[in-house]
Each structure stands twice: as C-alpha cells, then as structure tokens.
Amino acid sequence: MAELPDVRFLTVAEVADIMRVSKMTVYRLVHSGELPAVRFGRSYRVPESAVTEALQRPIADVG
pTM for the complete prediction? Predict the structure, then answer.
C-alpha cells in the first residue's frame, strides 16, 4: 500500500485568520478555484501548502 504524503488541512476559519480576510472571502476563493479545498461532509478543508502558495502569489494590479 502506498504511503500518503503528510498533508495538513486547515479549516476555513483558520485560513481566514492566516490570510487576514473574512471567512466569506475564503469561501469565494474556494468556489472560484483560486484556493484548492477538499469537502469533508458539509465543511471545507484547505491544504496548508495551498495557503502558503496563495500568500506568496503577487497581488493583481487593479486599476
């Protein structure tokens, strides 16, 4: 049997705290596909590595 990689999943609330945005913003990022997530029952879990990558992306130039 293959070994699973050591992936840490965060709740939407934890992601919101780390990214300093609202939970609704995290849900929008998940639903738009900008932030990958796995659904566990009725809630979402986001891989910690995806949050790290999202924070390292350059901010889009608006205007």
Answer: 0.80
Q: Which residue has the tokens 């609202």?
A: 22
pLDDT band at 5 (very low <50, low <70, confident <90, very high): confident
Q: What per-residue confidence (pLDDT) applies to 6?
A: 84
| Token code pair at residue 38 | 């796995």
Q: Is there a contact between 10 and 17 (Cβ–Cβ < 8 Å)?
A: no
Residue 51 class from Cβ within 10 Å (0-12 exposed, 13-18 middle, 19+ buried)?
buried
DSSP string, 1-63: -PPPP---EEEHHHHHHHHTS-HHHHHHHHHHTSS--EEETTEEEEEHHHHHHHHHSPPP---
